[in-house]
Amino acid sequence: MRLKHSFKTAVIGLRTNKSRSGLTILGIVIGITSIMMIMSVGQGAENLILNQISGMGAEMVVVRPGREPKGPTDIMDTMFSESLKIRDVEALQRKSNVPDLLEIAPAVIIPGSVSYLGETFRPMIFGWKAEFMGDIFQIYPEKGIYFNEIDIRQKASVVVIGAKVKKELFGDEDALGKNIKIKNRNFKVIGVLPPKGQIAFFNVDETVILPYTTAQQYLTGSDHFNEIMLKARSPEVAARMVRDIELTLRETHGITDPSKDDFYIVTQKGMIDQVNTIISILTIFLSSVVAISLVVGGIGVMNIMLVSVTERTKEIGLRKALGATDRDIMTQFIGEAIILTAVGGLVGIVLGAGLSFLISFVLTNFFDLAWEFSFPVMAAILGLSVSAFVGLVFGFYPARQASKKSPIEALRYE
After folding, report:
1. Where are the beta strands (DSSP E) in 56-173?
2. With contact defined as beta carbons under 8 Å apart, do 82 and 222 qualify?
3. 352-355, long-range: CB within 8 Å, 24+ apart, which pairs?
4. pLDDT value of residue 1
């Protein structure tokens, strides 16, 4: 009963100074809200990326040039590497080298813009095998057709464009048969893709696809590829195909030491592991930064509690004169601190969840992203626990100061 009475007294004490109590927990509220948002948005981003990766299928394997990046400084070296060339594609196509290969599609990325009669748009321009998109992502032209192997061999100046590219350049006008310019060269539009939004790592609506041979001949002037996508006969043989790819490329590149590979292979599992690692590191880092606000909030609680102890000196003296022990006084003030921070934690959880839901709503309805709202239960439990712990830690010193006051001196305090 004594503990219950102490906490009841603590609640009464807090209710008499509502404004000050509200300002005291502001730092705790901000900290818990931020942690909830980071966890929720991070989980939403992870789910979005993993769903897009999964859409490629477990049988997909991607070969990229250069050494596998181990850090941010390695990414630029990889982007400008020219180690993957047509001889590699031809070697990988041989059944004797990669017997489990079903389909292969080298890709060239072309920076730049496209234009039509003065209208300009900056899309993602790929030199690729357009039919590969249909096979992998089940996306087919809404109007027109994909270019085929004959167009690739003949280096035809034809393109397939995304829905947003069509809208930006042509408006309501029919785009089929019209010529658009890429780096001052005309390309005939033979297909328009339906609105699909973000798929895997690119936005289909903002994409322009042309034969990779055409891209190399007329746009990049180089014979290397930015990546090579390969599809295995089934997910079960994907790992075996990866091994065959490694052996084949080492042979074409004259590499005997695997540590000197000038290419690296990415599988769906590898991409998922990378995404999980990156998002986990970012979440931990951002949460650690935000945790500073909890410390600041805890210091604020301690300062206000010290002020409260001073202002309520007579009350402390009166309670002691009526028989309250040092432990009773200490329990009351620690209780006030814990209640303050716990309430701050609850407010932060509700506010963080609400803002996270709002972010997911905006991303889903205004940016056409398949973003799922995720309520991080563990973050909520952790946030509430941490806020109560902060109250216990930072409320201990003021509570001890209150409990040590002499009842006689306290009653004389003016």
Report:
1. 60-65, 101-110, 114-116, 119-121, 124-128, 143-144, 158-161
2. yes
3. 352/32, 352/33, 352/34, 352/35, 352/36, 352/37, 352/40, 352/383, 353/36, 353/40, 353/380, 355/33, 355/37
4. 39
What is the Cα–Cα distance from 155 to 220, expressed in whole angstroms? 13
**How many CA atoms lie less than 13 Å away from 59 in the CB half-sphere?**
15
Q: What is the rounded distance in angstroms from the CA atom of residue 32 to the CA atom of residue 390?
A: 12
CB 288 within 8 A of CB 21: no
| Coil, strand or helix at 187 | strand
Q: Which residue has the tokens 């439990």?
A: 381
Q: What is the dihedral of CA 57, 59, 60, 64, to 10 degrees?
A: 150
Tokens in use for 291?
């945790």
pLDDT tens for each residue of 85-128: 999 999 999 999 999 998 899 999 999 999 999 899 999 999 99
8 close to 242: Cβ distance less than 8 angstroms: no
CB 180 within 8 A of CB 115: yes
HSE value, Cβ hemisphere, 13 Å, CA-based, for 7: 7
**Per the structure block, which two tokens stand in for 280?**
């986990």
Domain boundaries, given as residue ranges, for the chain: 2-52+274-412, 82-261
Cβ atoms of residues 304 and 397 within 8 Å? no
The ranges of the chain with pLDDT < 50 are 1, 10
Unique residue bearing structure tokens 């209208």: 119
HEC states along 2-27?
Answer: HHHHHHHHHHHHHHCCHHHHHHHCHH
Which parts of 235-374 fold into alpha helices (H)?
A: 238-253, 268-311, 313-321, 326-366
Q: Which residues are CB-neighbours of 270 under 8 A, at least 6 positions away?
A: none
What confidence tens digit (pLDDT) does each residue in 271-312 have? 666 667 777 777 777 777 777 777 777 887 788 777 777 777
